[in-house]
Design a protein that fits this description.
The structure is a homodimer of 190-residue chains.
Chain A (H helix, E strand, L loop, with lengths): L2 H10 L4 H8 L2 E6 L4 E3 L7 E7 L2 E6 L5 E7 L4 E2 L2 H6 L6 E4 L3 E7 H10 L2 H26 L2 H11 L1 H6 L2 H8 L3 H10 L2
Chain A binds a DNA duplex (30 and 30 nucleotides) through α9.
Chain lengths: 190, 190
DNA sequence: TTAATTTCTTAAACTAGCTTAAGTTTTTTA
DNA sequence: TAAAAAACTTAAGCTAGTTTAAGAAATTAA
């Protein structure tokens, strides 16, 4: 059903077959096609999403009306608008599939019940949130540290396979540069 | 001893007097003077720090040799280099007191034992990490969304009292602008 | 396999924010 | 309370990255 999800859980906490059985009644799997949305601006975020297969992006529309991508999520990553999810308030973000994807959904309402049944999951999610936060602390550093050009070169050399899975204008948006400037950088030194 | 810390915990989880007694054998309080360090570049981060009173900052030295502040932590906030803490590798960051401060220290070695004794703390830290990550998701948005000038005006109007506690060059560093440019912005419209 | 749509490129004019350098004001220390 | 150190200001010249506009190439749908 969702082998990556189960394997991922087992990397951080121990789970019996019975635990997994219980878990299965609290989460569901959802298939979404490329360009479909899990969340749109103005909606309240309903769930925390684990990418079983595929690729998601998080973005918002800025005041100029252009998409600003803030995150991607590949296989084995969690994605959500955690502020909207936590306080159950309308989101400014969109969550959308970049490729046809399978996601494991933990709905907000079910999450508390799930933690009561399987308190060990608090530990798993504590580790996930700490990892995500640690990554975002590093990202702030890179963001300040490097020029846009250096940021681009760094990204391409660190994640070459990922770069092949997304159109160039999405990479530009994620890096916070215009597609025109990215094009210039590639011409200069591909 | 650390009333803010205990009160903060009790906002998120229930704790008996006995729990608090156990807790007290796993954490310690540390007084640090203005400009003293909790962590310096090259050291491995040894603890997670809760600001009982005072004000801390996190920064690194960039390739031009200037300090780049990435975070501040006021009363009731946690601060650490979570990547260094998690993987116990040398840090690129400094953690320093901006004012004389009292911090509650949860040492990395003790943390796992503490979670075994008081598993409920996993929940508390899960919530703390989720809050921190949610805040950082919003911060990425503001960072992209606003010009440096708008970012400055936003910050000052949201946190006027905080702005009074830090020197201007630290605010400039946090906002990612030069002190000279900040000075110009203030002249234009204070 | 053609048309429609989406994505990418080129180049020139422009601007937000930086650099440099010198001077002034405020805070800390002796 | 004087001297030293730290923090802030001013202004001119500069550059990384944007904007605008038009066209070319690649995907997708019919």
């Amino acid at each position: 059903m969702y082998p990556n999800f189960i394997q991922h859980l087992k990397k951080y906490i121990s789970l019996t077959d019975n635990d997994i059985q219980i878990l299965s009644t609290y989460v569901k799997i959802k298939s979404i096609k490329k360009k479909e949305f899990l969340l749109e601006e103005g909606q309240t975020c309903k769930g925390n999403y684990f990418v079983e297969t595929g690729l998601l992006r998080m973005f918002y529309i800025n005041e100029k009306g252009t998409e600003q991508i803030t995150q991607f999520a590949l296989e084995n990553w969690w994605l959500s608008d955690y502020m909207s999810l936590m306080i159950q308030a309308p989101s400014k973000f969109y969550l959308q599939a970049v490729e046809d994807s399978e996601v494991v959904v933990v709905e907000h309402q079910k999450q508390e019940e799930l933690f009561e049944k399987l308190p060990r999951l608090e530990r798993y999610f504590r580790i996930m949130m700490q990892r995500a936060y640690a990554a975002s602390q590093m990202r702030v550093k890179y963001f300040h540290d490097f020029s846009k050009e250096e940021n681009y070169r760094q990204f391409v050399s660190l994640f070459p396979k990922f770069v092949q899975r997304i159109p160039q204008y999405m990479l530009a948006s994620y890096l916070g540069i215009t597609p025109e400037y990215l094009s210039e950088l590639r011409k200069k030194n591909p």
